Structure formats: structure tokens, C-alpha cells
């Protein structure tokens, strides 16, 4: 079978052929300008990662590296069937929803003495034990328990075969972001976020790329984060960032697609419109990055440190923060293990 295009190549391939999703160059330039004005802020540093996720263990512990592995391995499909029926997890006096409910559940388990970040434990955890770890404090359970259990135990077994920790697993990759993404995808099946679009094999590798970015964030906070080619990473194609890009005018949906999404119609994983939303989002952020780098070079006379992953780390909380302003723009709904 042919090797799929890389996520960046896939984004461009899809954007050049897309029928229902379009990158708007004027909007792209506006977003690049907006980020240019914030270019020196804390939001575009690795320490911003820690601020964004207060539930993560202190980065100076190896436990933090395994914590990231556990949460990223189960980081998919948190949207509720109905807006008012959200899974909620209470941890250290705060209530969390969405992806943060998973982080809260894992940290709560650690506080309760469950060795959830130990690969020997989570490679063998039963579905019932994981259900207890991920239990909801509202009436709505976290979706896809069986799939999360399968992903976590399978990934734990892979770590056991590669030195017994995520850090040991990553030591095979020589601080190379491209090798890291490929090594994760080759060895851990649930990270193989691939599809076929217009007869071509493509990939988005959303969770694998986030895992590399999170690993870098922790190592950077420890002063060990030397991954020279981190620019290999693209944005992480999910359902929240595309909504933000549409709100900011950098991405545009056809009327037919907008109508479909407003009706709440489910898009299946790998169908054309779903691939176009994800692929065009990747290419949209690539164009924002290219314009941003040009602005920094022309106006500041230097190269820009802000890569696509950091732009994503800014856009995701931006979309959460401006949730009510963009409520009229529907997110697309796809139940799958890839995002």
C-alpha cells in the first residue's frame, strides 16, 4: 500500500481540490496580523502550555511525561450529544468539561492513589477500572469508554516493549519531530489517523502530533526541549479549531455544508466533507504561518519562532473563550478515535 502524504502535504492536496471548504486568503492575512501583534506574548511560548493546563503534573517529573501519554492516547471525541448534557469531572475544587474532563479524571485518579500513569498498570487496566477513573460527576458519562480502554491498554503494551516508559519510547527518535510522529504512528495503531481522498492516501495524525508537541512542551519547561525541526508539525485537525477559523474569516464553508452542520447531521470519519474540513484547516494554518513569518521578516528583520503547533495552541483556547460569540457557527460532529 502506498505511503500516505504527510499532514502538511495532505492539507495542501485537500485544499486544492475541496468542494465544500475553502481557505480565504484575506481572512488568513487578518489572522496573521492578529498573531503578529501578539508575537511576543506568553501565549506563544512553551511556558504558555503549562499555564493552559494547570492539571498536568510538574514538568520536572517523569510522571508528567507518562501523564501526557495517557491523556493524549485517550484524547478524542468529547462533544456531547446535547449541549446541556455534558460529562463533567470535579477535581481539586473545579469542574471540567470536554478534553479537560479527561485531564481532570486522570489527575483525580492520581490524587486517589491509582497508578494510572504507570504503563505496567494501564497496559492491563480492566474496562471497569478505567470506567471508575473516567467516572462523570454529572449524569452524562464520558463517551467511547470501550474505545478509550482499547487505545490505552494497547498503547501501554507497546511502551512495555519499548523500555517501559514514554520517555524511553521517544529516546529512539533522536530529538527529531518527524521521526517521533512516524515512530508513534508505526508502533501504536490508534494513532494512525489516515484516510483516502480523491484516490490519494492522506494523513492528519492529530493525536500523534499533539503528543510530540506536549512532549516538547514538558521537555522545554525542563530546559531539555531541543527538537530543532518542530516546524514539521502542523495544526492538530479537530472540531474546535475549524470553528474558530471560520469565525475569524480564514476558512469558509459552502452553504450546503453549513446547512448540514446546522442540522446537527453526523459526518462519518473519512467521508469527503469531514476530510475537507480537517485538511483545509491544516492548510489554512499553514498559510497563516507563512504570512506571519513574512510579516516578522519584513517588519522586524528577523525570523519568526511561531510555528503551526503554537498557532494551534493559541487558536484552541481562543475558540473555547469566544464560544458564545461563535455559537452560530456549528462544529462538525464525527465520533471516532482520531480527534
UniProtKB/TrEMBL annotation:
Keyword Cell cycle: no
The enzyme's E.C. designation: 3.2.2.-
A Pfam family that the UniProt record links to this protein: Q_salvage
Gene Ontology MF: a single term: hydrolase activity
Function: Catalyzes the hydrolysis of queuosine 5'-phosphate, releasing the nucleobase queuine (q). Is required for salvage of queuine from exogenous queuosine (Q) that is imported and then converted to queuosine 5'-phosphate intracellularly.
PANTHER family found in the cross-reference section: QUEUOSINE 5'-PHOSPHATE N-GLYCOSYLASE_HYDROLASE (PTHR21314:SF0), QUEUOSINE 5'-PHOSPHATE N-GLYCOSYLASE_HYDROLASE-RELATED (PTHR21314)
Protein name, per record: Queuosine 5'-phosphate N-glycosylase/hydrolase
